[in-house]
Design a protein that fits this description.
The protein has helices at residues 22-28, 42-45, 48-58, 75-88, 99-113, 119-123, 187-205, 213-235, 240-253, 267-279, 283-298, 303-314, 321-338, 355-365, 381-391, and strands at 11-14, 33-38, 62-67, 92-97, 135-139, 151-156, 161-166, 174-177. It has 394 residues and is of the alpha/beta class.
């Protein structure tokens, strides 16, 4: 087990009608003028935004709406949100939505606290981040885990780059979680979320670190829980228990606890980001589309690790590590298929890609071969290209 510092200060308010405690939480954390950040308007249609706004109004808390966040959240929208927040005099940013809204809210918070500093300079750490506004979350989907993570991702559409930022300033003050809110989500969003939860865990799980049993056990239990309840949610997403388990797994998968004491890999994420930037692919779909190609490319770096995953998560009985590893990969891919998630590039909307597109994404992922991606197997430009090539079929 490697050295680590663990810090996860987010207050979680979980259960039915939890959203009705929003105003009290905002007030507790010092909010008096709130910028409400949300997506396409489904939170309006469902009535959720109205409930929250009424709660704020009844508590005498001023608010301003900032709706229109898109999947793979855009830097330009966050920058405009900074201008709106500064003009309004916001002292608190409240995200109502999933990962895209939360990450946008985090970006707006950083920019608002540092007026006059380009948000992209903060995001690329050209300018050190030393302060931010408090952020709260009313979660509407089990997926990205941004509600408890120290990370956020924005896409700079002007240069075609999707960039993550990890900092303790990304830790939100509170996260309100009512599983019932997820009942009306499109099924595709639910299944994309299931993949994302699994990947946030798997991208930490595949490591060469030894003697890290407690962290391994947490990750394995989380994966088993997601797999079981993902099946139930696929059949009936109004199953409160199943959606509860998924929502809590979403938060635990990305708050750091499933990877403590080991290095993180995140290769599928980094490759998937290139698909999201280039073709605006849903995040979860970009991950399931490349995972099999990645796993088959790297598992011989340490078959025993993949075999442990196969046995502990999928119940594989095979004694031989290599064969167990292969079976674990097959079962994972089969599970994605059972949720109607893409497992190769050809199953995405863009279809099978041209050669120059694969080369371009491999170049972008590795800075034109100036750095390697990942840890389990360090991947240079040629490796990333080969993984994309293997995934590029129907």
């Amino acid at each position: 087990m490697q050295e680590f510092i663990y810090y996860a200060p987010t207050e979680v308010v979980f259960g039915k009608d939890a959203e009705k405690k929003t105003a009290a939480e905002v007030r507790k954390w010092g909010g008096s003028r709130v910028l409400l950040v949300y997506g396409s308007g489904s939170v309006k249609k469902s009535g959720l935004l109205g409930i929250i706004e009424q709660e704020l109004a009844d508590a005498g808390i001023a608010f301003k709406e900032w709706g229109g966040v898109k999947p793979n959240p855009r830097l330009s929208f966050a920058e405009a949100g900074v201008e709106a927040a500064v003009s309004f005099g916001a002292d608190f940013i409240l995200a109502v939505g999933g990962g895209s809204s939360i990450d946008t809210a985090k970006g707006i918070a950083h920019g608002t606290a540092n007026p006059g500093t380009a948000l992209w300079d903060i995001w690329t750490q050209k300018v050190p981040l030393t302060k931010s506004l408090p952020v709260g979350v009313v979660l509407t989907i089990a997926a990205a885990g941004s509600e408890m993570s120290d990370s956020a991702v924005l896409t700079n559409e002007a240069i075609g780059r999707k960039q993550g930022l990890s900092t303790d300033f990304n830790r939100v003050k509170f996260a309100i979680m009512n599983p019932e809110i997820t009942y009306t989500l499109p099924k595709y969003q639910v299944t994309c979320g299931i993949v994302d939860i699994m990947m946030h865990t798997l991208d930490r799980y595949f490591t060469h670190t030894k003697g890290n049993r407690m962290t391994d056990e947490i990750a394995e239990a989380l994966l088993r829980t997601v797999i079981e309840n993902g099946r139930k949610a696929w059949e009936d997403q109004t199953d409160y228990e199943a959606m509860s388990e998924l929502m809590w797994c979403s938060s635990l998968s990305h708050n750091g606890i499933t990877g403590l004491g080991a290095e993180k890999d995140f290769a599928p994420h980094k490759i998937g980001h290139e698909l999201s930037v280039k073709y605006d692919v849903a995040h979860g779909a970009s991950l399931s589309a490349v995972w099999e190609a990645w796993a088959e490319y790297v598992y011989m770096e340490e078959p025993a690790r993949f075999a442990q995953y196969a046995r502990k998560v999928w119940g594989v009985q095979e004694d031989d590590d290599v064969e167990a590893a292969k079976e674990g990969i097959r079962r994972t891919v089969g599970y994605f298929k059972s949720l109607n998630m893409p497992v190769c590039l050809g199953e995405l909307d863009a279809g099978v890609l041209a050669e120059d597109a694969l080369v371009d994404m491999a170049e972008r992922a590795t800075g034109k071969d100036t750095f390697c991606v990942a840890k389990f197997k360090e991947l240079d430009q040629g490796d990333v290209y080969e993984i994309l090539r293997r995934a590029n079929h129907m």
